[in-house]
């Protein structure tokens, strides 16, 4: 691994400093905001996850453009993220100074109304070993790929206020699930030769230091699993803390670990989460990308389409172009889930597809590796292909990119046109009573439950 140019690291190595509800009023740029706006942040930040850091504040947010700045909206709580009655409820709890425990109670009551575990994620997809051990830190939904949630990777360098993993971050402990022993993972891969990919996810696994993360990865390497083709790392660290790969104490060690993976003939795919072109613009992220790529890892990118952040085709076209220029491979555009501040960030399916289509039309073929917009729903990843006329009626055309049953993939199917629909549950089949997969899906879910309810999990799909 090429060491960083010393002068760069010495002059520009910032120390990570995080800001949360407890200390955000110390941020100089926040001090300048009117007290009313600071209080609004406190109200919302008591319900939704809130964490940011010095890199996001100093290098990504343009403080001359508040509150419209996309990264400000992405990481700082905004009044409109809560519905008015929820806002009032928390506002009045704070104004009455009810005390930490009571405020926590009010917060959890509101959170429970925000659909904290969408798309059946609580009920399905937790795998088990042949001896019956349930693996709560894992999820196996699509044949080839297992998701793995390292227990020490359940946080991030900053939080996206749209994130569907928010119950993990706000201390709703009963939703936290994780698995310490990577031996279980190895054992599972031995029992499942069909699995080719392990996807480390979180939170953000890149919150772990290199030594800890290498325990997981090295046990996979040491196990010499013939079926293991690819290790994926789902991470937003390139956006929120690129110094992880530059100047942090363990950055060289982390990159050496990446090289160790590729050196063993295993593909390392870094699934980077970028929501806006500005996240690709700093010197720090550019050098971090170069360093990761120099290990032989490939960086693929993904993001949901988000109101107020990237809900127009120019932003997406720019983002994909910048990514390809930096050697990244655009991979997924997601539709934001029906949870948390969905009413604030959500973009209807038809509009999301128009944004995708218009952006796709503006870029070269090398950007068109991207697929979307895609919903990570209970039956699978469903892509909206477009709107078409069937006789005198309009229809929405969709297909599965991933299916609980692989046989569903790549078969176009139709729904009645609905401009306002935001999720598959809002759509009706164009003809007949149900979508082609629904009968089979019901049977699959039923038989899973009968097998002993092998499933408690809130994660899966979506970013990062
Ligand atoms: C998206 C996703 C994967 C990975 O799917 P690919 O199409 O291979 O990228 C795996 N598991 C779950 C649950 C997912 O949502
Ligand atoms: S979207 Fe990813 S980076 Fe953002 S808060 Fe959620 S898990 Fe963390």
UniProtKB/TrEMBL annotation:
Q: Which cofactor does it need?
A: pyridoxal 5'-phosphate
Q: Which organism is it from?
A: Nitrosotalea sinensis
* Protein known as: Lysine 2,3-aminomutase related protein
UniProt keyword annotation of Iron-sulfur present = yes
Kindly list the organism's lineage: Archaea, Nitrososphaerota, Nitrososphaeria, Nitrosotaleales, Nitrosotaleaceae
Among InterPro entries, the record links this protein to: Aldolase_TIM, Lys_aminomutase/Glu_NH3_mut, rSAM, rSAM_sf
What are the UniProt keywords, alphabetically? 4Fe-4S, Iron, Iron-sulfur, Metal-binding, Pyridoxal phosphate, S-adenosyl-L-methionine
Source taxon at top rank: Archaea
PANTHER family for the chain: L-LYSINE 2,3-AMINOMUTASE AQ_1632-RELATED, LYSINE 2,3-AMINOMUTASE-RELATED
Listed GO MF terms: 4 iron, 4 sulfur cluster binding; catalytic activity; metal ion binding
Indicate whether 4Fe-4S appears among the record's keywords. Answer: yes
């Amino acid at each position: 691994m090429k060491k960083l140019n010393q002068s760069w690291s010495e002059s520009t190595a910032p120390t990570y400093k995080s800001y949360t509800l407890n200390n955000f009023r110390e941020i100089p740029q926040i001090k300048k905001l009117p007290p009313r706006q600071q209080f609004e942040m406190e109200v919302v930040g008591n319900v939704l996850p809130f964490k940011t850091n010095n890199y996001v504040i100093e290098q990504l947010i343009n403080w001359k453009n508040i509150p419209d700045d996309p990264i400000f909206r992405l990481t700082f709580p905004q009044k409109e993220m809560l519905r008015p009655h929820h806002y009032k409820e928390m506002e009045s709890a704070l104004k009455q100074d009810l005390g930490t425990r009571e405020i926590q109670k009010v917060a959890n009551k509101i959170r429970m109304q925000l659909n904290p575990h969408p798309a059946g994620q609580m009920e399905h997809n937790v795998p088990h070993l042949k001896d019956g051990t349930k693996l709560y830190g894992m999820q196996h939904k699509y044949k080839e790929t297992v998701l793995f949630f390292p227990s020490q990777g359940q946080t991030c360098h900053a939080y996206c206020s749209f994130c569907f993993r928010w119950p993990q971050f706000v201390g709703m402990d009963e939703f936290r699930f994780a698995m310490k022993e990577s031996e279980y993972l190895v054992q599972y891969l031995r029992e499942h030769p069909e699995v080719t990919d392990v996807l480390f996810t979180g939170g953000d696994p890149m919150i772990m230091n290199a030594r800890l993360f290498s325990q997981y990865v090295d046990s996979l390497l040491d196990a010499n699993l013939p079926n293991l083709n690819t290790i994926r790392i789902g991470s937003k660290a390139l956006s929120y803390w690129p110094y992880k790969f530059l100047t942090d104490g363990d950055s060289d060690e982390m990159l050496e670990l990446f090289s160790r993976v590729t050196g063993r003939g295993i593909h390392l795919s870094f699934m980077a989460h970028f929501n806006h072109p500005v996240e690709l613009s700093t010197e720090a992220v550019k050098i971090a990308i170069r360093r990761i790529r120099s290990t032989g890892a490939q960086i693929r990118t993904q993001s949901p389409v988000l109101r107020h952040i990237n809900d127009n085709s120019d932003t997406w076209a720019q983002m994909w172009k910048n990514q390809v220029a930096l050697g990244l491979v655009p991979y997924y555009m997601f539709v934001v889930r029906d949870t948390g501040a969905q009413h604030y960030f959500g973009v209807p399916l038809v509009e999301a597809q128009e944004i995708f289509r218009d952006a796709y039309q503006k870029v070269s073929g090398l950007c068109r590796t991207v697929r979307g917009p895609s919903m990570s729903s209970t039956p699978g990843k469903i892509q909206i292909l477009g709107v078409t006329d069937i006789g005198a009626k309009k229809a929405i055309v969709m297909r599965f990119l991933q299916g609980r049953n692989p046989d569903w993939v790549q078969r176009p199917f139709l729904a009645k046109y609905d401009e306002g629909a935001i999720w598959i549950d809002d759509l009706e089949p164009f003809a007949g009573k149900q979508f082609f997969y629904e009968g089979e899906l019901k049977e699959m879910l039923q038989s899973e439950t009968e097998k002993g309810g092998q499933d408690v999990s809130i994660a899966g799909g979506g970013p990062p």
